[in-house]
Amino acid sequence: MVGVRFENSGKTYYFAPGADKFKRGEHAIVETSRGVEYGEISMGNTFVPNSEIVQPLRAVGRRANENDAKRNEENHRREAEAMKVCAEKIAAHGLDMKLVGSSYTFDNSKLIFYFTAAGRVDFRELVKDLAAVFRTRIELRQIGIRDEAKMIGGCGVCGRKLCCASFLPNFAQVSIRMAKEQGLSLSSSKISGCCGRLMCCLRFEHETYEREIRLTPPVDSIVETVDGRGTVTENSPIAGTVKVRLDEKPGDPPRVYKRDDVKIISRGSRRNDDVGNGDDDRDVVTDE
Labelling 252: which of 20, 80, 116, 239 has CA 20 to 30 A away? Predict the structure, then answer.
């Protein structure tokens, strides 16, 4: 199999290469559900388990040549022009929709416009006008705000290019619980991305935090230390430490111990973010 993608951060699709040998970075012409497409080889010839292949498996049409590359560039130029025309038509029809992007298939048999809107939009007359202008099949596709951010791009609060626009092939579930487990502020302005939804990067270290939290005594646990028995008042899963208030010295500040140096007598049920926090702990999925 070879892997082909059609956007820099797009999903990789598998195709049968036949007798051809492809290298990463080369380009090929393939037949997709959208039509004939110009794609980049993101993975050279390799074995792929059947469980990862989406049926029906299509074959690579042919290796792209210099003329194909020029045509692909010309299609991108025409897409920019199509955006201007479509925006004018939307304004003329008075439709409550925001145009986000456009895309030609490689053979120009279809022109797709992507838009966002608060609700359903009756764009039948708009499609007729666009078809009369471009003389090809027109498709208008409504997308969500996360897909809009992926198409437009931008910079996150970290100063880097948006993850979804640079390397994430798919959107995964992100929940408010992930922010809580990482000890982050629950202010929406600090954990939300440009799209207004929870930042995708909250998931990147989620498995590590989950594993470390399981290994660390929770708050209110009764533990045995080298200095005697006490109660965990605070923990730091990533650092692997706990603060313990000793039973024999309740007036003294809690002491810091490595979690491997204490023995759990009775396991508590609270985390740091639960202490004095009345926030709803239900998962909030941000998928569109």
Answer: 239
